[in-house]
Amino acid sequence: MTLLGHDAAWREWHKAMAGDRMHHAWLLAGRRGVGKATFALAAARELVGADGQADQHPDIHVLSFAPKDDKEDRKRAEGKPFELARSIRISQVRAMQSRLSTRPTMGEKRAIIIDPADDLERNAANALLKSLEEPPVGTYFLLVAHSPARLLPTIRSRCRVLRFPTVSDNEMDRLLTQLSPGADDATRSAAIAAAAGSPGAALEFVDMELGKVAQEMRAILDRGDPDFRMRGTLAGLIGGRPDRNRIRAVLELARSVVGQRLENNLSDPRRIIDTHSELVRLTGEQPTYNFDAGLLAMEIGSLLANAATASERADG
């Protein structure tokens, strides 16, 4: 089944496969959650002729986040929950490159998927560049990127770009109604607003039940929080020990709530703009820093409260 917004990408891919000389490196660019990784795996299976075979194929290699360290690797081996590293390491790229010295196992082609390529360590990115500059015959790279600008320009210049568009609010609403029928209107509305056209992000927000979080954020932005009670409520809704995905989702939700105010005709939008910029900064730091959940909730709440007096429209 083709996911929403993938039709154009599939047309380009199939046209390239039917051509005489298919480009060896592809950059799949778009917002997180629009289905780029799903496309990459399906396209790789078509490329190596894996249709109808088992999910794992010896000529499809996927590089993604590995266990953080040896301790976490042992947990994985024992079937226990384990923590992932925050980047794709050079050792993973070197291991992949060692495979490229041999021929594909079952045919003439192999596919290398890197997801997400914009989280390659600097040394790993430089190592990958060498393979892109001198690709082995029959090897094709599919680089999934949420923020292509973070990739080395020399990597981007060697890739053919497939862009994955966002999905309209109406399509998102139909999708959520179909896949999450138990979600109430408030949760669905918050998910659509926060996801900014990303179906995967919207479904993630619904699963995390962030509707009440969005309502509390809007209330703080509407009324301020002089006695800090609403910030305490916000912290409780976010949770005492949220994982990395929930923290990222909360930050993206806060950015969306503030961004919606920027669409209004404000008398003085500077404070709202500054608040949005601070939330963008926090979101950018989130993959690298271990945020204390309570302090992060208070910081988000304080940014919203400080922006509250700037939310009045210029026309009253």
From TrEMBL:
Q: Which domain of life is it from?
A: Bacteria
Concerning InterPro entries, the annotation shows: DNA_Rep/Repair_Clamp_Loader, P-loop_NTPase
The record ties this protein, via Pfam families, to: DNA_pol3_delta2
| UniProt-listed Gene3D superfamilies | P-loop containing nucleotide triphosphate hydrolases (3.40.50.300)
Q: What is this protein called?
A: AAA family ATPase
- Organism of derivation: Qipengyuania citrea
Q: Supply the source organism's classification.
A: Bacteria, Pseudomonadati, Pseudomonadota, Alphaproteobacteria, Sphingomonadales
